[in-house]
Amino acid sequence: SMAHFIDVEQRKVVGNLLLGARPRSAAFKADGSELWVTSEVGGGLSIVDPVARKTRQVVKFNIPGLRAEQIQPVGINLTRDGKLGFVHLGPANRVAVVDGASHEVLKYLLVGQRVWHGAFTPDEKYLLVANGLSNDVSVIDVAAQKVIKSIQVGEMPWGIAIAPGGDH
After folding, report:
1. Can you tell me the distance from the alpha carbon of 49 to that of 131, in angstroms, rounded to the nearest whole number?
2. pLDDT tens for each residue of 9-47
3. β-sheet bridge partners, residue 130
4. Secondary structure element (H or E) that encloses residue 36, with its range
5. I need a surface site. Which of 8, 100, 156, 162 has the fewest CB within 10 A?
6. Which PANTHER family does the protein's record reference (predicted)?
7. What is the DSSP track for 4-38?
């Protein structure tokens, strides 16, 4: 359960960082100041200083009525301005909205069953997330931090890709 820092020019590992159990996704803030890493089994989100290669903070998710093992952070989407992060919580059927500065959980958005990965529209007005067990995609209004639609799709969607023009 580690993050490995690799010097791409030298093609070698230059650092390792122990994280929560089963890291699943990693995303940099656009300015490179932070690396966010989810831990599916550990149930948390590590906020990492990529220069010092140290964990600054671990965000834990607590959803009333759900057992800790149901909360499995997998996918991450960060807005370009770094103000918001959206963490997909797998079988918790929620997307956590996380403040990009304080790292506080602002709210949990109820989506379909077993949410894994997502993608923003090019204008970042919407975030679409794949819900594997309910066979649908939830559309989240980013500014309103609200789910506005569910779109039925084929069986077990896992990820989302949106064309640069946003037309598909």
Report:
1. 31
2. 999 999 999 999 999 999 999 999 999 999 999 999 999
3. 137
4. strand 35-39
5. 8
6. DIHYDRO-HEME D1 DEHYDROGENASE, PROTEIN NIRF
7. EEEETTTTEEEEEEE-SSSEEEEEE-TTSS-EEEE
